[in-house]
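Q: Give me the 3D complex with decanoyl-CoA.
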Amino acid sequence: MGAPFNYDVLDLTDEQVDAEVRVFGALTAAVRRLNEATLRTTVDHATVEEVRRQVEELTARLEKSMIPDNFGVSFTKGGRIRGYGNAVVGIRNPNAVPLTVVQDKVNGRASAEFELNALHEGPPGQVHGGVVALVLDQVFGEAAAAGGSPGMTGTLTLRYRLNTPLGPCSAEAWVDRRDGIKTIVKGELRRADGTVTVTAEGIFILPRWAREEIAKNGGTPPQFE
Ligand SMILES: CCCCCCCCCC(=O)SCCNC(=O)CCNC(=O)[C@H](O)C(C)(C)COP(=O)(O)OP(=O)(O)OC[C@H]1O[C@@H](n2cnc3c(N)ncnc32)[C@H](O)[C@@H]1OP(=O)(O)O
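A: Here is the predicted complex, encoded as structure tokens.
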């Protein structure tokens, strides 16, 4: 079986990538503000309806020219990764958390400090458990990649030990061990004061199609970004 998805390689310069990161990153940040304001505004209904008309006009301007569907992941010949739609770290995805993951390739670790707000609420004032899983899946996957054995999430097991209040949080993950094509990653989510609220273990697997591709043509595993 071949790969169920492709990574295109594009002829874009670093300057072109920097420009799209700057311009679209700023739009994404502005839309995130709009998202939070949509949730929290207390202006009167007439103002809400006027703003809604303006939002629809602006949306129609962007819809004049769009890619057919999802963004996918592409690389430049210079090695830049354009995973702009990623649900956790995509710089063009206003629904992404947002998050910057720092990889430690020496020790096979990954970490992120971030802020979760009213858009990420589950129980009152607390982070939604599914949002925790979303964030940890990405940070865990990046730890596996940083450790040199990237894979797709096969299993992710979380233990929610304490509630996680909305606000500043951090996540950390590390490669615990390898078992052939499986990389076992462990990690945790912490409150701002360092209290661990969630511990987790993930099994990241180099899929059969990637194994077959490497056996046939050599090369390095894809990143599963
Ligand atoms: C910079 C880069 C940063 C990247 C960050 C990315 C973070 C986000 C990652 C994701 O969200 S990935 C998307 C969510 N995951 C998926 O969609 C995976 C869907 N499942 C699959 O594609 C396949 O089921 C999978 C690749 C997991 C396994 O398929 P294989 O055909 O390679 O498995 P195979 O049957 O050959 O089994 C190989 C080994 O893995 C084991 N295994 C298979 N599925 C497993 C599973 N789900 N959990 C644990 N172990 C599993 C299986 O028992 C066996 O163990 P042993 O070698 O010891 O016998």
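A quick observation: The CA atoms of residues 41 and 139 lie 32 Å apart.
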